[in-house]
Amino acid sequence: MAAVSMAAGTAYAQSEVYLCVDQNGVKEYKNTGDTKGCKRVSLPPLTVTSSSKPPREGTAASKPAASTPTDFPKVDNGTQKARDNDRRQILQDELKNEQQRLANLKKDYNDGTPERQGNEKNYAKYQERVASMKEDISRSEKNIDALNRELSNLK
């Protein structure tokens, strides 16, 4: 069985290859020779081998996952807790601001029928603004979801 997995095989191209040169001397390889200046190219067969051997020592595939270096700076628990609290407060502030923004957007959107502005005599401009408002509401809702996820991931 091992002999089969280590056997070398030869792969051949599925189609012919042509080298085409245009009037400017630019070379291009194609699988059809239907244009002027194309000549069929004879390519050597491609040899394919597979191996069931484990990777050699010292190669990237054999190295274990990287760990934290011993000289990496460490932070004491009190400092880390203060940083986490700061992060939590920042996220909560951002969440509050985004929720307020969403409430304002929904108020202006008025269930899809916002009031027309003076420069929107053309109905298409009005529809464009309504679509933009709907996108803003969707974006704000996604931001709120992301902030809630971040807050739930905190310890």
- Specify Rg, calculated over alpha carbons: 32 Å
Task: Tell me the strand order in the biggest sheet.
Answer: 3-2-4
Helical proportion, percent range: 40-55%
- Provide the low-confidence segments as ranges: 1-7
Structural class: alpha+beta
Sequence of secondary-structure elements? HEEEEEHH
Mean pLDDT: 81
Strand content: 5-15%
Summarize, please.
This protein has 155 residues and is α+β, with helices and mostly antiparallel strands. Helices cover 45% and strands 12% of the residues. The protein has a three-stranded antiparallel sheet with strand order 3-2-4, with no helix packed on it. Strands 1-5 form a two-stranded antiparallel sheet.
Description:
This protein has 155 residues and is an alpha+beta fold. The protein has two domains: 2-51, no CATH class; 77-153. It has three helices and five strands, in the order αβββββαα. It has helices at 2-6, 77-109, 123-153, and strands at 9-11, 17-21, 27-30, 38-41, 46-48. A three-stranded antiparallel beta sheet has the order 3-2-4, with no helix packed on it. A two-stranded antiparallel sheet has the order 1-5. A hairpin with a 5-residue loop joins β2 (17-21) and β3 (27-30). α2 packs antiparallel against α3. The longest helix is centred in the middle third of the chain and has 33 residues, at 77-109. The two termini are 52 Å apart. Mean pLDDT is 81; it is low at 1-7.
